Amino acid sequence: MTLSATDGSAGHGPHVLEPQPDCVQVQWQAATQAEDRRRVLRWTCECRPMVYYLVTAGGQGYIERTGPGAATVQTARMRHVQVADLWELIWLGRAR
Ligand SMILES: [Zn+2]
Description:
Blueprint: E1 29-30, E2 39-43, E3 51-57, E4 60-67, E5 70-74, H1 80-91
Antiparallel strand pairs: 1-5, 2-3, 3-4, 4-5
The site of zinc ion has 4 residues, from loops.
């Protein structure tokens, strides 16, 4: 999986699958100020209460989660290959 902005369409990404019983706990932390050149490469469907975004900035990536009534949270910054793997785990319901 390579990180490009070629898939997904504005306003309607894929639906995150239900969390699996053995899903990994993602270490969410309070969102920090956006860097320059922040780019959202992938996002999940905005019709769901929680929306996940795969963001790249400054040569690293992270995942951001927003939801009604909840503060925006993010993962730690990580390498692109790591964030791509984590994105897939979240999307498949294997991490949450
Ligand atoms: Zn939807």
